[in-house]
Write a structure and sequence with these properties.
Blueprint lengths: L1 E2 L1 H8 L6 H10 L4 E3 H13 L4 H13 L4 E3 L3 H13 L7 H13 L3 E3 L4 H4 L3 E2 L6
Parallel strand pairs: 1-4, 2-3, 4-5
């Protein structure tokens, strides 16, 4: 599964409403994939939400050092492919980070994302974190 920004937030902070669900899905996953744009977005989001900076940075260091998580470093071809996807999907409100995720997921044949972001469903992927109905 792809570890997206909102999924990392839910995973890291027990105060998040979907924390338990995020932990369950994380431990069930065979593949755990993320990329550096997600990590950058995660730091910014956690900072905006006023979470402890040291806690956030320690989490990032642990994530980058984890042998269970593959972190892809976005290079020029991946970035350009994501921009091309944004051009094709101008009717959507995808971020560049979202587009990188979608391109990467297709390249790696990953269909599920640890995320609350509905954009993943719009693009045909499985969003694992959904509020109880």
């Amino acid at each position: 599964m792809l570890l997206d920004t909102s999924g990392l937030l839910c995973l890291h902070f027990s105060t998040e409403p979907l924390h338990t669900q995020a932990c369950v899905e994380y431990h069930k996953a065979v593949t755990r994939l993320t990329h550096n744009y997600i990590i950058a977005e995660y730091v910014a989001l956690a900072n905006a939400r006023r979470f402890s900076r040291s806690s956030v940075l320690n989490f990032v260091v642990d994530l980058l050092g984890s042998p269970d998580i593959e972190t892809v470093w976005v290079d020029e071809p991946l970035h350009r492919a994501a921009v091309e996807l944004l051009i094709v999907r101008q009717d959507k409100t995808y971020s560049l980070c979202d587009a990188v995720s979608f391109v990467l997921m297709r390249q790696c044949e990953v269909t599920k994302a640890l995320t609350t972001d509905q954009h993943f469903e719009q693009e045909g992927f499985v969003r694992l974190l959904q509020p109880a109905s």
